[in-house]
Design goal:
By secondary structure, this protein is mainly beta. Helix content is 14%, strand content 55%. The protein contains two helices and eight strands. The chain has an eight-stranded antiparallel beta barrel. The N terminus is likely disordered.
Amino acid sequence: MRIIPFLLIPILGLITLKGNAQAYSLEPEKNTGPYTTGYKKAIGVKMYPSAISYKSFMTGSKAIEVLGYFTLDGFRTTVMIEKYSPFANTNNLSWYIGYGGHIGVWSEEWKKNNPTHDAGIALGVDGILGLDYKIKNAPLNLSLDWQPSFNFVGSSYFESGWAGLGIRYTFK
């Protein structure tokens, strides 16, 4: 029963963000960031660690990204809010910064292989800093980022970050 409040935190955050989202303008000159490069949503993979990635832009410069990491011993879900800005006056390259949170569940088997960490639930905060590139005339997006995190529940420790290469299929 103690897990239910921890699951409600990300859900309430998503509802709040959706309520605060601004409408996307159909006039390109009013938009900055990836909307001007021709995609609004993307799904794919992010490597190190391996994750399924889904990104959706709420405005021309603000996106929400959901990551799902799955292993034989458990899973971790991360939800991030990311702010995008054009990089060096290019249309297809943006840099982004963001924040979010994660929840993870691991088994006792994982603890045997990682004795300094507790098995069970991990709950914490994440940051992200990266580059996002939309391949021109192709429905593909590439990203390279750094994602440090800190656990408050479970094993309380700072992770200096995962470096991730993302490859996603984009939708308009």
